[in-house]
Structure formats: structure tokens, C-alpha cells
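Problem: given the chain below (412 residues), write out its structure.
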Amino acid sequence: MSLRLPPEPVVWALSRHNAYLNNRPGGERLQRRGEDFGELKLDGAILDDAILPGCSFAGSSLQGAQFLRADLFSADFTRADLTGTLFDRADLRGANFLMAVLKKTSFRQADLRPGQILQHEKEGDEKPQTKPVDLSGANLEEANLGHAHLDQANLSNAKAAGAAFVGASLFAVNLTGADLTGADFSGARLKDTTFVGATLDGAKLAGCDLRGANLRSVDLSGVDLSGANLQGAIYRQGVAQLPPEVEAKMAAHGKWIASNGAEGERAVFSHMKLPGVDFSSCDLRAAIFHETNLAGAYFTRSQLLFTSFMGADLRKANFDQASLGGANFSAALLAGAAFRGAQLVGVEIFNALNQKTGKVIFPRFDNADLTGADLRGAVVEGVDFSSTILEKTNLSGADLKHCTGLRSSRRG
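Solution.
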């Protein structure tokens, strides 16, 4: 759809606002609520201190525009071109920047925290709802978000190469699949933030608060983490070096997860020889390891939801504290393997509309060999052990919920 020139009333309102900013006669501050400015060409517009809550600029071109200190609460900038636009110190709580172009845009000290909006119920009641800022899929290359407040914002799959987040607050932000190549987070607060599948080559995380952050599968070998607080964070400690072929599959798998299968590629390691490889703290949800040699491999604290290890050699492998909901170990060799504190539970299935289907997938150990395996402290739910070898298996302190076949399990 082609852009439209702003209609006369908008041109007049912008002119009067400009006069207001310059203390000229006839000036009037621009104040609109919920008005539609979508699909307009507004490049270079000066809207400093304007009051525009709930207004829509969806699909508009606002290159080089200014919104300094503006009230843009819950405003909609979906797919707008905001290249070089200034939002310094603006109120952008609950705003929507889905797929917007924000190259070299400035958000210094801007408020991008969740906004509280009223949701109208069928009965006529109004229910408050928290609406996080949506920057998913946005192009933030070389943008400046220094000291901005971005708590709980969604930046999944955003392109933010070379962007600056110096001193910003990014508590519980979703950076899944984001391209953060060369981004500068120096001194930023990133507690409980998710980086799964993100690219951080050459990024600066010096002095950051990364407590509880999820950095599964992220390659941190080229990242500056000097002085960072990583207490409780999940990451590949010691930057475990994976074989190049495996590292490439992991990177593609991260993008596959982050994009719900739209990009990247599901990791398939079937029939590969990977004994002793360290997959600790990696995100391998739905990966396939059919008949793979993984003897002595490490999966400590890894995310292995629906991962399939059918027929794999996992003797003496380590799954301590791993998340193994719905994992498949049918016919796997698990003699001497460790599952201490692991979560081997059922996972409810949802359809494409995120609706419950009523179906639950439980872990499977059909015809698996768990001789001498250690499951102390593990949570095991809904598993049928009737065909599993459990000779000398240590189940002390394991929480066995609705498991069957334990008494009749086949012994070595």
C-alpha cells in the first residue's frame, strides 16, 4: 500500500504544534487520543512534547522525525519506517513496534516498560491488562537505547547489530533469536532475560547484571563478559567447544526454535559419533539423536523438551537437572547414566491457535536399559517402565508420579 500525504487537518495541526514549540502566536500543543495517522508520509515531523496516547502510525514513514518527551502510551508503530527518529525520554509504555524499521533510531532514557490498559469484557466490565512493548522482528541496527527502560519487552528475532543498550534496564526481556552482533550492553541490567538462539558475536556485556539469564546454546566465545554477574544464569560454562559441524547445527536449531520453524533448521544428529561431547546448558528442544553414539556425553541443565534419543548409546551420559519433558529414550542404552534432579514429566500439547488439545506426551523408556542409572531426586511422571531394564537403578528420593510397570520391570 502506497503512503498518503497528510490531509490538511493534520498539516494544520502539525503547523500549530510547531508554533507552540517555538512560542509563536497561534501555537497549540498537539493532543490526540486514539487517532489514526497510519500509512502517512510524515518524514521529519517535529512532535516533541506531543500528547498522542493510543494513536496509530502503523505503516507510516517517519524518517528523521522527533518525538522528544512525547506521550505515546500504547501507540502503534507496526511496520512503520522510523529510521533516524528521536524518541528520547518519550513515554512509550505498551507501544507496538512490530516489524518496524528503527535503524539509527534513538530511545535514550525512553520509557518502554509494560503499559496498563483496560480490556473491555463482554459483560461491559473493564479489566486492567498488562501490555509489554513489542519490538519483535524490528530492525534496530545501530539504534541507541542508552539508559532506556525496556523491562519485559519483546525483542524476539529483532535485528540489533551494533545497537547500544548501555546502562539500559532489560529485566525479563525476550531476546530469543535476536541478532545482537556487536551490540553494546555495558552496565545494562539483564536479570532473567532470555537469549536463546541469539547471536552475540563481538557483543559487550561487561559489567552487566545477568543473574538468572537464559543463555542456553548461545556462543559466548567472542563476548566481553568482564565484570558481569552471572549468578544463577544458564550458559555454557567454560565455553565448551563443540565440533564445528555440531556448532553449526546448534546455531540453525536456535533460529528454528526462535522462529517456530520459519527459519533455521531442526537439529538432527542421528547416527553421528559424539561420545563425551558437552551439550550442557544447551537448548535442544525437539532435536533428534536417533542411534547416536553419546556415551559419556553431558546434557547437564539442558532444555530437552520432546527431544528423541531412540536407540542412542547414552551409557554414563549426564542429564543432571535437565528438562526432559516428553523426551523419548526408547531402546536407548542408559547404563550408568545420571538423571539427578532431572524433570522427566508430561507436557500438554497445544494446537496452532495455542489452545489445549487435552493430549499429554510423557517421557518414554520402552525397552531402554537403565542398569545402574542414578535418578536420585528426579521428578518422573507417567512413565511406563514395564519393558525397561532397571537392574541396580537408584531411585532414592525420586518423585514417581503415576508411573507403571516398576514391579514387573524386566531385570537384567
